[in-house]
Amino acid sequence: MSKNQMTRRQHYIPQVYLGGFSPQYQNKGEKYTIYFYDLEKRKQSKKDVPIKSICYEKCLYEMRGDSGKFVCDNHLEGFFSEIENTFHTYRDKLERKAFLEENYNTKCFLTKEEKIFWAAYMIVQILRLPNGLDAVEQEIKKHMTYTSDNMLAHDAARWYCLPFFSEINEETGQIIKTLLKPMENMHIGVGVDLQGRIITADNPVYVETSEWPCDEYNKIIFPISSQLCLFLFGKEEKKMVDKNFLFPIDEADREEIIVSLASNAFKKIYLSYKLEEHEKENKYIEEAITNRRKEGEE
């Protein structure tokens, strides 16, 4: 990436992540594509689309400063590029051991280092979503004591949510610390679906909590690829599972992933396969659409 050339098409769902849900992923094709289902229109994509063509906004992470000109070009893009390279490394590491059947019996599947990485990665993914950045931006505008400055609020939201312009400390990293804290004592499981039917969405981290702020989330679901999904269990549910384990995904787990991710999606879910006609009326997707409508009415 040239330091003198800004990346204008900035992906809020990384291409390296979406690649894990591409039909070309298993044979490591060069041009990754993906299928999608639009939950609002209830419409399946007629064909697979290039992953580079979805889940991006122009100059999403750029700031302009007082002059109105872009400052720190590609700074956040550079940071995200580094963490996405690390994601690739950790997903590879996970794949090398997750498909070994004997590991279903291990009592400590993920290393401490892996657990820290996946927790941090999920928080960064949550914070970089445009909907969240926009919500923070609007909240900042409400508390401005002088004439509203749209660009100032835009920049402030990025400084607050994505404090990767200097070394993270207690002050700059407060939002990250607040979101990470409830994960500390949750139990963690990695689910394996050899059928490759795990989906993801344009909002790929599902967080279930009955209140906020909270000491612990109820559950977190984060699909890593079409064959791997990370589950974090909290509160009562963690009493029923091991602390750190690998397990084979069954139909009930697949249902939970679909309903949770589709209910939580902004607009679309993404898959490595094209839904068949009978799957378009999938009861899991219908349940998710019903959940979305209920939430919209509240």
Task: Describe, in plain words, how this protein is organized in 3D.
- The chain is α+β, with helices and mostly antiparallel strands and 298 residues long.
- It contains 9 helices and 12 strands.
- The strands form 3 sheets. Strands 2, 3, 4, 7 and 12 form a 5-stranded antiparallel beta sheet that branches. The chain has a 5-stranded mixed beta sheet with strand order 8-9-10-6-11, with helices on one face.
- Strand 2 and strand 3 form a beta hairpin.
- The chain starts with 8 loop residues before the first strand and ends with a helix.
Estimate what percentage of residues fall within beta strands: 15-25%
Taking pLDDT < 50 over at least 5 consecutive residues as the criterion, the unreliable ranges are: none
Q: Give the integer mean of the pLDDT values.
A: 90
Largest sheet: 5 strands, antiparallel
Structural class: alpha+beta
Radius of gyration, taken over Cα atoms and rounded to an integer in Å = 20 Å
Determine the fraction of residues in helical runs and give it as a percent range.
Answer: 25-40%
Q: What is the distance, rounded to the nearest whole angstrom, between the alpha carbons of the first and last residues?
A: 45 Å
Count all strands and give the number.
12
The coarse overall form would be globular
| Sequence of secondary-structure elements | EHEEEEHHHHHEEEEEEHEHH
